Amino acid sequence: MLSFLRSRLKSIRFALEGWWYVLRTQRNTWVHASITTGVIILGVWLQLSPQDWAILLITIALVWAAEFFNTSLEALADLIHPDEHPQIKIIKDVSAAGVLITATAAILIGLLIFGPPLVDLLIR
Q1: Domain of 85?
Q2: What's the pLDDT tens digit per position in 45-95?
Q3: With left for phi above 0 and alpha for psi between -120 and 50, is residue 49 left, alpha or beta?
Q4: How many domains does the chain have?
Q5: Residues 99/78, Cβ–Cβ less than 8 Å
Q6: CA–CA separation, 53 vs 43, rounded Å?
Q7: Distance from C-alpha of 91 to C-alpha of 70, rounded to nearest angstrom
Q8: Are 79 and 108 in contact (CB under 8 A)?
Q9: Distance between CA atoms of residues 53 and 7, nearest Å
């Protein structure tokens, strides 16, 4: 059992090192981090329902995961072919499009969840 726990802790450490790498090297992650923080603060302030929190947390996780996968694919593509190559460009562009899709969906979900309570506050 101790061996199992040690291996899990190692895995968590490796994952956190990956997260730190993404934060250090990818400018867009600071945009994601700022928006994530703002969404959480706004959600607490508006006292969102558990269902709204579930949707927001899934949405936040999807955007972050897309960014991490994008970074991974870009690093792998650069390792395979460091010079410019049309196929590598396709890989990077499609991967970036995945992030764009999740970020756009997150914005729309945010408008659906935050819009009504914010409008109610403005009308009062």
Answers
A1: 2-123
A2: 999 999 999 999 999 999 999 999 999 999 999 999 999 999 999 999 999
A3: beta
A4: 1
A5: no
A6: 8
A7: 9
A8: no
A9: 32
- Quick count: other Cβ atoms within 10 Å of Cβ 70? 22
**End-to-end Cα separation, the chain, in angstroms:** 58
| Alpha helices by DSSP H, the chain | 2-25, 27-46, 50-80, 86-123
DSSP state of 47: T
**CATH code where residue 15 lies:** 1.10.287.3610
Positive or negative torsion for Cα 113, 114, 117, 120: negative
Indicate the pTM of the whole model: 0.88
Amino acid code (one letter) for 15: A
